[in-house]
Amino acid sequence: MLCLRTEDGVRIEVADRYPEREVPVQASGRSFASPDQENGRGLLLCAALAIAATSSRKEQAWEFVKFAAGPIGQGLIGESGLFVPVLTPAVGSPGFAKAHSNIRNLDVLIGGPANSGYLPVTAAWERIDALMDRGFGPVLRGVRPATSLQTGLSHDVDEVLRSR
Amino acid sequence: MTTSRLVKQRARAGRAFISPNLAAVAVFMLFPLGFSLYMSFQKWDLFTPPKFVGLGNFRQLFTADPLFPIALGNTAIFTVGTLVPTVVISLAVAGALNRKVRGIGVFRTVVFLPLAVSAVVMAVVWQFVFNTNNGLLNTMLGWVGIGPIPWLTDPKWAMVSLCMVSVWKSVPFATVILLAAMQGVPHILYDAAKIDGASEVRQFFSITVPLIRGALAFVVVMSIINAFQAFDQVYVLTGGHGGPETGTYVLGIMLFQNAFAFLDFGYASALAWVMFAILLGLTVLQLRLARRNIAEY
């Protein structure tokens, strides 16, 4: 399940684990939101709402999904403090900031898209995944500073991608 | 004339009888073996046709892969770390079970129970035991005032945990073998030793251990082979990357990762043959040592 951020909403797609490989194929001829939105940062990880095919109240469920994904629902989600809303105005709303007043640096929750780049999606992904796993371990355990990734991990990943 | 015809007939019948087995061996053993040997000289990712690279895979393995020495070292540590405790514990347990005590059948059954548990089930259960924050082991250590130990999240401790699980798993089998061998030791020897005034410990080391040397050698060889081929318990316990970091990156994990994650079947086949060569060497060496010992005896 992918959630793609657009200027005024969120587009939800179903794809396999390689979004960038999958979505453009679907997009041919049809105007789907591009994963390249915001330089590829439009891709969010999110909790998804879905309607069961066997549901006897599909209409009401659809109304609820629209409500939850709309401005009012998103605002409420932000105020609840349980999730980070996906709609940009709701993320920047004072209600969301108030719900997380105990977090000094709110960017930890909402600044991701502005500070992240492409996820490398390649046939060598498993190798990179293994490298990341090895590289992140010591950082997450606090043995090595996160800056060590800049030289160690980045270099190794570059090498794997170059040798392809 | 008639005898030669009979011989021929018998030979034909014999061939007919073994042919189904022979076919199975050919299809499920010889062909995969030959194919993997062939693959070890190729570069193949399943999707494109294989490309001949000669000894390239082996060269890369021995000279250019920084993970191969790590995997080899980890496997060596793991082998020693399971072999020694397994032999010591199973000797002690078999010795304890080799007595005529009331209800010994119950104890024997309990000791052999882990044999019946599948490796994956076992590893999943041990995962709960080893959980750093609310695992059984750390909870119990907490009662006696020992702080939480990162059993599966610290590279060094992860190897210790892995060895513990493997020892727990391999002790029953070794115990069965050793106990069977111990029961084959003639009782007259113990009676004679008792008359000479030997203690039970002395009897154990001077009579039991030398006389079950064959079974002991078998247990050692099997333990080494099992440790070299360890995969399932590692995969379930610490994940398919042999993590944390390279803490449990053993040869079995490296093989699986190269074959089924990186889709480099040629390289994985080369690694498999290197592993086979190492194991063959170790086993031949071990058997030769054991034979020399027996000759001395």
Number of helices of chain B: 13
N- and C-termini, Cα separation of chain B: 51 Å
Low-confidence stretches of chain B: none
What are the secondary-structure elements of chain A, in order, as H or E? EEHHEHHHHHHHH
Low-confidence stretches of chain A: 15-43
The number of helical runs of chain A is 10
What is Rg of chain A? 19 Å
Order of helices and strands of chain B: HEEHHHHHHHHHHHH
Structural class by secondary-structure content of chain B: mainly alpha
Largest sheet of chain B: 2 strands, antiparallel
Explained architecture:
The complex is a heterodimer of chains A (164) and B (297). Chain A has helices spanning 19-27, 37-40, 58-69, 71-80, 88-91, 94-99, 107-110, 112-115, 125-141, 148-162; strands at residues 2-5, 10-13, 43-44. With 164 residues, chain A is mainly alpha-helical. A three-stranded antiparallel sheet of chain A has the order 2-1-3. The two termini of chain A are 29 Å apart. By secondary structure, chain B is mostly helical. In chain B, strands 1-2 form a two-stranded antiparallel ribbon. In chain B, helix 7 packs antiparallel against helix 10 (213-228). Chain B starts with a helix and ends with a helix. The A-B interface holds A 124, 126-127, 129-130, 133-134, 137-138, 141 and B 150, 153-155, 239, 241, 243-246, 257, 261-263.
Please give a quick description of this structure:
The complex is a heterodimer of chains A (164) and B (297). Chain A has ten helices and three strands, in the order ββααβαααααααα. Chain A is mainly α and 164 residues long.
Summary tags:
heterodimer; A: 164 residues; mainly alpha; three-stranded antiparallel β-sheet; 10 helices; 52% helix; B: 297 residues; two-stranded antiparallel ribbon; 13 helices; 2 strands; 75% helix; 1% strand
Question: Which helices and strands, and how do they pair?
Answer:
The complex is a heterodimer of chains A (164) and B (297).
Chain A: E1 2-5, E2 10-13, H1 19-27, H2 37-40, E3 43-44, H3 58-69, H4 71-80, H5 88-91, H6 94-99, H7 107-110, H8 112-115, H9 125-141, H10 148-162
Antiparallel strand pairs in A: 1-2, 1-3
Helix pairs in contact in A: 3-4, 9-10
Chain B: H1 2-39, E1 42-43, E2 51-52, H2 56-64, H3 67-97, H4 104-112, H5 119-130, H6 136-143, H7 155-183, H8 187-195, H9 200-211, H10 213-228, H11 232-238, H12 251-261, H13 265-296
Antiparallel strand pairs in B: 1-2
Helix pairs in contact in B: 1-13, 3-7, 3-10, 5-11, 7-10, 7-11, 10-13, 12-13
